[in-house]
Design brief:
two-stranded antiparallel ribbon, about 5% strand
Length: about 120
């Protein structure tokens, strides 16, 4: 049996772990599971920037679909005791993990169909 050893495999595995951690954090913080699925797809509204062009679209998409913003929101929400911000961070962690697990990555402004997870 040959074990997969590609960067894409490891990034997808990392995405699954982030999705699971984000959902666990969402529950731990007190998020309502009735809202989990709608909230998990909500960050994709950031793609509306593509209606104004590839540069703005890539910026808005990448702003929402990265772990830095997600973890900053989560950490600030916990540190400042702002549950809504902490839940937002947990959802962003889960959503970004879900996207990575599905093979979606950060977008390039010169070609929004190309992501950092694709081989160049």
């Amino acid at each position: 049996m040959k074990l997969p050893n590609t960067a894409r495999f490891w990034l997808r595995l990392e995405g699954i772990a982030a999705l699971a951690a984000g959902i666990a954090l969402f529950q731990q913080i007190g998020g309502n599971f009735l809202w989990l699925i709608p909230l998990l797809v909500l960050p994709d509204i950031s793609m509306v920037g593509f209606l104004r062009g590839p540069a703005l679209g890539a910026f808005t998409y990448n702003l929402i679909h990265n772990f830095a913003v997600a973890l900053l929101a989560l950490g600030a929400g916990v540190a400042l005791n702002i549950p809504a911000l902490a839940v937002t961070g947990a959802i962003l962690v889960a959503h970004t993990g879900m996207d990575r697990a599905l093979g979606f990555g950060l977008r390039y402004s010169d070609d929004p169909k190309r992501s950092h997870l694709q081989r160049e």
